[in-house]
């Protein structure tokens, strides 16, 4: 199942998906990486891995509909059927989300529905949580609120700061995102006529 990955930054989750998809038995292939930031480090990493990658500078478009139309056109040209948001730091319009309903995933660094939004590691520490983690979910028009596909928990340890906690969570992100993509790609494949 051809998959497009949308990023804004370093793209470590993207790299985990690309790495997993290299294996022949993996049901998804990363066909295209798009970034709303042309300078994103992840674009270079994708190209180095031999994946088509393009930066679409969101500021260069007349507005969100034009920017999203350009993304849709690029995804369609690559025959993408599934979209993975991987550190994509832009809120997508309801129209875009509806276009991809049931075929667009996001990874969020918290145990949703806990801690939606930004700065989740800082907030988990500040609120004195004993546990933290990450969630892969379908994207809906409500931010960080769609149906959950996979979740992983990590302990918050004495002496943790946001960076240490983030690193522990990120290792789990890299493990569960490929698993979740595989499960959804299998379902997409099974639903084909
Ligand atoms: C990850 O923690 C992801 O959960 C969050 O943004 C970060 C992106 O990291 N949405 P990377 O670009 O995948 O390395």
From TrEMBL:
Positions annotated as active site in the UniProt record:
108 (proton donor)
- Describe the reaction catalysed, as an equation: N(1)-(5-phospho-beta-D-ribosyl)glycinamide + (6R)-10-formyltetrahydrofolate = N(2)-formyl-N(1)-(5-phospho-beta-D-ribosyl)glycinamide + (6S)-5,6,7,8-tetrahydrofolate + H(+)
Decide whether keyword DNA damage is in the record. no
What processes does the entry annotate via GO biological process terms?
'de novo' IMP biosynthetic process
> Which parts of the chain are coiled coil?
none
One Gene Ontology term of the molecular function aspect: phosphoribosylglycinamide formyltransferase activity
Q: What enzyme category does the UniProt record give?
A: transferase
**Residues spanning the signal sequence:** none
Pathway(s) of this molecule: Purine metabolism; IMP biosynthesis via de novo pathway; N(2)-formyl-N(1)-(5-phospho-D-ribosyl)glycinamide from N(1)-(5-phospho-D-ribosyl)glycinamide (10-formyl THF route): step 1/1
Q: Which NCBIfam families match?
A: PurN (TIGR00639)
Q: State the function annotated in the UniProt record.
A: Catalyzes the transfer of a formyl group from 10-formyltetrahydrofolate to 5-phospho-ribosyl-glycinamide (GAR), producing 5-phospho-ribosyl-N-formylglycinamide (FGAR) and tetrahydrofolate.
Question: Which protein family is named in the record?
Answer: Belongs to the GART family.
Name of the protein described by the UniProt record: Phosphoribosylglycinamide formyltransferase
Query: Which species?
Result: Roseiarcus fermentans
């Amino acid at each position: 199942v051809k998959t497009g990955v949308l990023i804004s930054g370093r793209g470590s989750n993207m790299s985990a998906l690309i790495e997993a998809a290299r294996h022949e038995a993996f049901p998804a292939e990363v066909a295209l990486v798009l970034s709303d930031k042309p300078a994103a480090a992840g674009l270079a990493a994708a190209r180095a891995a031999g994946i088509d990658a393009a930066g679409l500078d969101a500021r260069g478009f007349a507005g969100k509909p034009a920017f999203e139309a350009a993304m849709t056109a690029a995804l369609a040209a690559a025959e993408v059927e599934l979209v993975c948001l991987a550190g994509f730091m832009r809120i997508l319009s309801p129209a875009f989300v509806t276009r991809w309903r049931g075929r667009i995933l996001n990874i969020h660094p918290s145990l949703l529905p806990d801690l939606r939004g930004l700065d989740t590691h800082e907030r988990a520490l500040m609120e004195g949580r004993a546990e933290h983690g990450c969630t892969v979910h379908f994207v809906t028009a409500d931010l960080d609120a769609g149906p959950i596909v996979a979740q992983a928990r990590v302990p918050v340890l004495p002496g943790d700061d946001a960076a240490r906690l983030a690193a522990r969570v990120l290792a789990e992100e890299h493990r569960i995102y490929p698993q979740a993509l595989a499960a959804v790609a299998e379902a997409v494949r099974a639903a084909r006529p």
